[in-house]
Specification:
mainly alpha, globular, 20 helices, 471 residues
Length: 471
């Protein structure tokens, strides 16, 4: 209970300065937030235009739901047969199609540049790099996604991390202004009167309090429960802030929250500073992943509130209150499914196995990481730096380059997802060109409906399959 609770507190309070930078200043899109805000606007609007948008949202949601049901009812099997004839040996390896309209809707909201970057990065990764790894016998012939991604994510993650941190540091003036209230909190001079905007923003003092309390609590828990030295816990919390920054930026730009990939970065760092300490490696990554997820979730909600004119301080209080119930439900649900360690054997949990394998490998030290992975990290970091610097100093040249977030993320997700993002962006771009007025009015409601329909139906199908398994 305590471990999950304080990781959530750490992540939620981390989002306070990020909100001001990413939402207020940089105006990052956050596609899921746009979809949610648009849905709420349509549901509570009146008039002819609102009625037309409501119909567009409803019809697209029904179409997306019908597609999800059709795929679950056997459409995927028939689609697989067709693809096997088209792709031959490539099928079910790295290049295949799986029709998930949620990504298509997200691609229409994200736009062409990021989606095209995803498609280019994904094609280079899965059609060129992975086959090369197989030719070098680093991967078995016909390796699937789960085997391949343990090699590909290193370069892509390095690209995203370096690019996000460098871009963040370029905004140092805004960062200083965001943290200025911390200095005012300790100032002995007369307190100045807050502006109207500052009165509704979450105070930076809440950020400081949340970070210090979580740091102390997690440091104690990690030491008492997992025998992790206090200094390692401090490093894990500091690392988590910068990696949560990367996760939140990726969520805002590409609509995917890569907490697993960022957790691997923490594991890599701890493989260097704490060789031989497998437990510390795993639990430090757990802090990063949990805090990043909480930060990204809150920023998605805050972006919705920003679009609708909500009070961010009240939103923060509501989200913080949810930590108590969320912790209670998640812990009790896990305890009911996994009463003891032996019960874990009935769960495949491929993600957990990947984390454990990485902890065991990197726990032996950074030197045990394969040389190809080390070179991928170096190359990815250099590429991320280039893709940030060139657009900044050579804007005419930079506009033709892919975005580092899109290009790097494609190395951590399946090629199919990158393709669907690109397909959605092409449809949105075509609508903007051929039906400019109609697109301006109906594109966002339609894309929002597709996302909502696919998400809700997917959740219903999952719950139904769980019910069938239980009975």
């Amino acid at each position: 209970f305590a471990w999950i609770f304080f990781i959530a507190v750490l992540g939620v309070t981390m989002a306070i300065p990020m909100k001001r930078q990413m939402i207020n200043i940089e105006q990052i899109r956050f596609p899921d937030s746009i979809a949610t805000a648009e849905t709420l606007k349509v549901l509570y609007s009146e008039g002819k235009k609102a009625a037309g948008q409501a119909k567009a949202l409803l019809y697209s949601a029904l179409f997306s739901a019908a597609n999800a049901i059709a795929m679950a009812a056997g459409g995927e099997r028939w689609l697989g047969v067709v693809q096997q004839h088209i792709f031959g040996n490539w099928y079910q390896r790295t290049i295949f199609f799986k029709w998930d309209l949620m990504f298509v809707g997200a691609g229409a909201l994200i736009g062409m540049k990021t989606s095209l970057s995803l498609f280019i990065g994904g094609t280079i990764c899965w059609a060129l790099y992975v086959p090369w790894l197989e030719s070098q016998e680093l991967l078995p012939a016909g390796a699937g996604y789960r085997e391949s991604v343990s090699w590909t994510l290193w370069g892509g993650t390095a690209c995203m991390v370096v690019a996000s941190i460098v871009a963040f540091l370029f905004q140092w003036k805004s960062i200083v202004r965001s943290f200025s209230s911390l200095g005012a909190m300790f100032s002995l001079s007369k307190k100045r009167e807050l502006t109207d905007v500052e009165k509704i923003e979450t105070p930076m003092s809440w950020f400081l309090a949340g970070q210090l309390i979580s740091l102390a609590a997690l440091g104690y828990l990690a030491h008492a429960s997992f025998d992790v030295p206090y200094w390692m816990s401090c490093i894990a919390v500091v690392i988590s802030f910068f990696l949560a920054l990367v996760v939140c930026r990726i969520t805002g730009e590409a609509n995917i929250t890569p907490t697993g990939a960022m957790g691997k970065v923490t594991q890599l760092i701890f493989g260097g500073i704490a060789p031989g300490h497998v437990t510390a490696n795993l639990m430090a990554a757990n802090i990063t992943s949990g805090a990043s997820s909480s930060s990204a979730d809150l920023l998605v909600d805050l972006k919705v509130g920003y679009l609708l004119g909500a009070n961010p301080r009240k939103q923060f209080i509501a989200q913080f209150s949810g930590i108590f119930l969320g912790t209670l439900v998640s812990v009790l649900a896990f305890r009911s499914m996994v009463p003891d360690a032996n019960a874990l054997q009935s769960f495949n949990a491929p993600g957990a196995r990947t984390w454990a394998a990485t902890a065991e490998a990197l726990g032996m030290g950074f030197s045990h990481l394969h040389s190809i992975k080390v070179l991928s990290i170096i190359a990815g970091g250099i590429l991320g730096l280039i893709l940030v610097l060139i657009p900044r100093y050579l804007p005419r040249t930079g506009k033709w380059l892919p975005t580092p977030i899109g290009f790097g993320l494609a190395w951590a997700i399946q090629w199919n997802d990158s393709f669907l993002f690109f397909a959605g962006a092409v449809l949105g771009w075509t609508a903007d060109r051929l039906f400019k007025d109609k697109s301006r009015e109906y594109k966002i409601p339609s894309a929002s409906g597709i996302i909502a329909g696919a998400a809700l139906t997917g959740m219903a199908i999952l719950m139904f399959s769980i019910y069938q398994t239980a009975h």
